[in-house]
Each structure stands twice: as structure tokens, then as C-alpha cells.
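Lab notebook page, bench 4
Experiment: in silico fold of construct C2
Operator: M.H.
Input chain length: 317 residues
Purpose: comparison with the prior construct
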Amino acid sequence: MAGLALIAALQLPAAVPQCATCHPTEAAAHSQTRMAHALVPVLDSAFARNLPNHSLSESNGGYSFDYRVVGQNLAVTTVRGLDEAQGLIRWVVGAGDQGQTPLVETRAGIAQHRVSYFPRLQRYGVTVGDDPGASANAEAALGRIWNKNDLRACLNCHATSVSSDLKSFTPGVQCLKCHPGANEHALGHGTPFNPGKIGAEAQVRFCGQCHRVADAPGGNALETIRFQPLRLMKSKCFASGKLTCTTCHAAHHDALRNDAAYYNGKCLNCHAGLPHVRQQKAGNCIGCHMPEVQLGQTLRFTDHDIQIVKAGVAVQK
């Protein structure tokens, strides 16, 4: 099973920078964030915890999916009639807010599993981007095979300190991911990189290394809603040269949800004198100028292209 070699040997690095010794507040806060848990061992995932005591299955008479715990991992079998394939899941991508998708070791290589768990809906479904309906065969039902570049791109945004051979990493986005040089700094050498101290566009592009600054393949405007830096850079507010990611989002905390007053305060830092704002007095700036957009049946994202929103406009740029 040569296809398993790419990921079967993945181990956590022995040394992790002791950032919490000098920065306990930041380290404690970050440890609770979704980014810190962007990649988790399968048995720690919502995907594994919520599996029912029966098989999952594709629509239109497709393949069934059977899962069983094997040590610290999860074995998956796809079957329809006499056609059967097996895989092993060690890691799950996603913190469990929007969704979680396993990486499956198969005979053909590493696959993005065809089944994902969507916590907001509390149900399993076809992974976003995959075709619905029945798979062509049992191997295809396990998921879409990734090459090394695919896996590297995934791990580089969902893990930290990924080795060149992809066989060693720290799961989740940890201190070193945003603060290169922290290891050397902990040993008394130099100062680590701090994205909070660089220019507005540079910071947005830094975050955009993972949150995306390029259009979706095929120019699908709706798909780009989830690329927050890309959408933000299209806005007139960003053109001011003052707006960064950390203007509204505290670096070591999750983005706040359903807190209109918090974001109103951020907007008022620049817009307090506008007649429109004085007339409104209170309300929800984000709800009007950065509405949530539904992507399919499973995902919702706030559109970071700050604008006067009219019907259909939010997804046209």
C-alpha cells in the first residue's frame, strides 16, 4: 500500500516554542480559537463524535460508508454490492464551526474524504465541491485523491511547521505560523515577525496566504465570498489605506459572531460623523453593509466587500 507512505508517518515535532512562558495571556486565548484547531486528530473531531450507529450512504442508490475505531484512528469502508474499498483516517481538517472533512489514506494516495460533517446543520453531507449523487466506484467514494502539492497546500494553512517531506507538523495554526522566528527568540536570539506591525495591505496579504487573495478558479464570484482578504481589498474602506484584518478582529481571539455593538464601534471609529450614521444612531452596520451570504445548503460567510448592498450586488465583484 505505497499510497499510504505520504501521510502514515506524520508525527508531531518534538520541540514546540515555549511562547506561553512570556506571553501567557496571548497563548491561553489563542489556544481556544478555531485557528488553533484547524487540523485535529480524528477521534477529537466532531466528525467522529457525531457518527450514528448505522452506515451513511450516498443518494441515488450510491455507496454506503461504514466507520469503525481502530486504535487512535478511524477506518472507513465504502461498499455497494460486491464493490468495496477501505481507507484510514488519522486527521480531520476544520475546527468544526462551518464543517469538518477527513483526510483518508487509500491505496491510491491521500484523499479529501467525500463525506463531511456540518455542525451548524448537525448532519453529514457531500464535501463542498464534490458532485452529489452516486460515486463511480468504491475508491472514488472514499474521496478525491490529492497529489503532494494539494496536501502541502492543505497542511500549510491548517498546520504549523510542516516539514518539506510532509511527514512532520504541528496540527492547527500555532504561534510559529504567524510569528516566524519565535523559536530563535525563545532561545534569546532576535525578534519574531509580528504581522500586527506591518502596513495595512501587507497585513491583509499576509493573512490572505491562507484566507485567499486570488479569485476562485473559473471566476465564480459566489465562491469568492469565503475569501475574506480578497473581498476586503475590493472595498472602498480598504482603499483608505487604514483598514487591516486586526482593525476589527483581535489577533488571538475568534471573530465575534452576533455582536452588532462590537462591530458598530469599529465602524464608528471612522464613520461617526456621517449624516447616515447620526440618523441611524443604533443598528447593525455589518448586517447592512457586510451581509452573510449562503453558499449552497451548508456554509454561510460574511461578505467582506464593504459596500452599499443592493439585491445581487454582494456577489458580483
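Observations: The radius of gyration is 22 Å. The first helix runs from residue 5 to 8.
Next step: discuss at group meeting.
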